[in-house]
Amino acid sequence: LKVQTFSKMGALVNTSMLLLSCLSFSLVTVFYTQAGREVGASDEEMEEILLPVSRICSIIIILAYVAYIFFQLVTHREAMAEAEGDEEQEEPNLSVPAAVTIMLVSTLVVSLCSDLMVQSLEGVVEHAHISSHFIGIILLPIVGNACEHASAIRFAVQDKPGLA
What we know:
This protein is mainly α. About 75% of the residues lie in helices and about 0% in strands. The protein is built from six helices and no strands.
């Protein structure tokens, strides 16, 4: 029987970051709902009211992310580091120039595919009668993160929950 372990500190920090981001995004929604009921303002007036709130929440999220990176890489490097086992270090299969070239080519291909996908979505919205909001908020993130989900499962099976 194999037991997986994970960093409690890492889980706590990641959960806190997720909570902060969800609360920040929810604040704008709640503010919109409350301000719309009380003021009864037009869309232009609501935008004037909500835009500063949205920007402040965005700045808070960015600052929290910078603080998280500083926390993880500088102040608590040892606490956030993954426990290294008795595994040997693998030799890289690619040289640095080859890896950079592959990364650049992959970026160009992904950019081209993204452009083609965005162009094709207009036809899907018209012919399939699916809301563009549903496609953009639900379907695209699920499909776009499928590779990340598969990697998370692979790393979890390899007993590397920090990477998963």
